[in-house]
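Write out structure tokens for Aminopeptidase RNPEPL1.
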Amino acid sequence: PPELLAHQPFQVILRYTSIDAPAVWWLGPELTYGHAKPFVFTQGHSVCNRSFFPCFDTPAVKCTYSAVVKAPTGVQVLMSATRSSFSEEEGVYHFHMEHPVPAYLVALVAGDLQPADIGPRSRVWAEPCLLSTATSKLSGMVEQWLTTAERLYGPYMWGRYDIVFLPPSFPIVAMENPCLTFIISSILESDEFLVIDVIHEVAHSWFGNAVTNATWEEMWLSEGLATYAQRRITTETYGAAFTCLETAFRLDALHRQMKLLGEDSPVSKLQAKLEPGVNPSHLMNLFTYEKGYCFVHYLSQLCGDPQHFDGFLRAYVEKYKFSSVVAQDLLDSFLSFFPELREQSVDCRAGLEFERWLNATGPPLAEPDLSQGSSLTRPVEALFQLWTAEPLDQVAATASAIDISKWRTFQTALFLDRLLDGSPLPQEVVTSLSQCYSSLLDSMNAEIRIRWLQLVVRNDYYPDLHRVRRFLESQMSRMYTIPLYEDLSTGALKPFALEVFYQTQGRLHPNLRRTIQQILSQGLGPGVELAAEPGAERDAGMGADTPALLLGDEAPGTALSLRDVNVSA
């Protein structure tokens, strides 16, 4: 009978015939750090996993999953699963995720990976040449963050919290795959950015993974809440001053983006409208994170005490865990949890209506008081103001007495971002800045160096151009290449950019290579596109017509470029 047939188990067999599925990234050994073995990873967010396996590729649908993976000897396979086992005789891995997850959180990685324990329920996985660095940076730290998060938001539900460090071809900074956070290895040298990025992914274990936005048009329900939870964790762990500094740095970037887009930009809405045929990744921007954070922070302020709001979020997670929600679910739960606020009609306060928060374009309706970070932000503002003062000879003498080598990374990055906002600067100012800081900054981490080198490029400062070349020769990730190529391609330094690109393109992933080609092709005339070096695409296993995976702000010609944001979100 048909009613019985409807419940019979069935099997779907897929045979992969191409290597250009957007979710699956195949790397030859030359694109890894160790250059020893091939590497593969998947990236499902937002709607790429439909090219990986048949699924309902929407965050509104969740399910458990099991997987069986066969791999060559010596290749370690990992997945975002709560249970795993390995049969050495068969060379087969078995995985099972016991909790329902949306399709985009199913993830796989395989390569020359080795483990090291960093806590009672955490280990790092990395290529052998990176393992000791990754271990030393995170040993004991992750358990501290997990324990703090549990105290704030309730038990960690996913069993293990492991981290795998991926080669520089990984197209984003980090991804919150349950049980197994993916993070780009390039961030290892920037300690403060590493800490913030991992804590943000830890926060997603509650907000995003356990309770998920039902529609991509409300990604702030994941990113805004995770950012708020991340900052509660950093406040508890590192103090309010550091959290306020990091928040000021991010809100500075938000206002930079706002200035570029205009206050009436539709993508600045928290409930952004997703037009048919548009990749939801194009809605991922700083508004998703920072305007969402500001709304959540505003809700916490209405309670009068962050700890009261923590209690609400614990109840919210307990009620909706392993399901998907819309904004109204969050706001109704909030007003039910605080009936006195409902009686005061806080959702309808003039100018701060909840509906306006969700649907108005422009900047946040209210921002947090960051005065607790003034001990860290005031010196940055003072030094920036100093460099815009007259006369220059006195400025340089005074500035050289300020030892920025003792600053936090976020302080130095904020200072350089302010200088970038003012570029192009008078040439004598750039010369003096270089004399003061160039050698010092060149010894700092990549987040600092790329900002200084963007200053060099935007101000056509030729004496430091060799530092730009050396940086691009050593970098293979989009986060440290695209911003510089975007700057280089807009002015007189384009021939220099072409020369460096042709010398280094063989070390870049084909997707990144094609993106940079498109950036450098702009302005060369209609229909003109740079050719790769003969055989470069062929050697990488890519045809000339293979489409690159262009994620939102990576695509050239969009309204917003990475070089205008100066933030790794």
